């Protein structure tokens, strides 16, 4: 081997790009759901007195899903890779907190079971307080008060602002 050949840098091949099938799967799922949403919105019956109609938001959401799905396909094809979570408050070695998940599911099922009887104002307030309790809050009285204020406020926002009556339940005639 001659002297100039001994000092040559070793040849490096470009690293093979890994195809992330998960990103393509997510993109395909988003595109399919978006197309179905637009298709389903097209079949809605439209009243003559409503200037916006019930199709506006499903069209917007469906189109957005298709657009974001297509952008994800392009980004994935260009080699974009998601980065793993590196937050300092996240312990990736610990297991999921299934007790908290079960508490949240129980609170949600309680809300679904009681919303017709108790009404949105009470059930929504209990939903907020129960979710806060499940996630570790220890200020029950404050959580109930905040939940009731938010639930009653959203009840009036739907009823007065949008003309959509939510069930008043036991508070029928009071709200």
From TrEMBL:
Transmembrane helix recorded as keyword: yes
Lineage top rank: taxon: Bacteria
Assigned keywords, A-Z: Membrane, Transmembrane, Transmembrane helix
InterPro entries, A to Z: DUF1468
Annotated DUF1468 domain residues: 27-166
Pfam families xref list: TctB (PF07331)
Signal peptide span: none
Transmembrane segments: 21-39, 59-80, 101-133, 145-166
Full protein name: Membrane protein
Source species: Nocardioides luteus
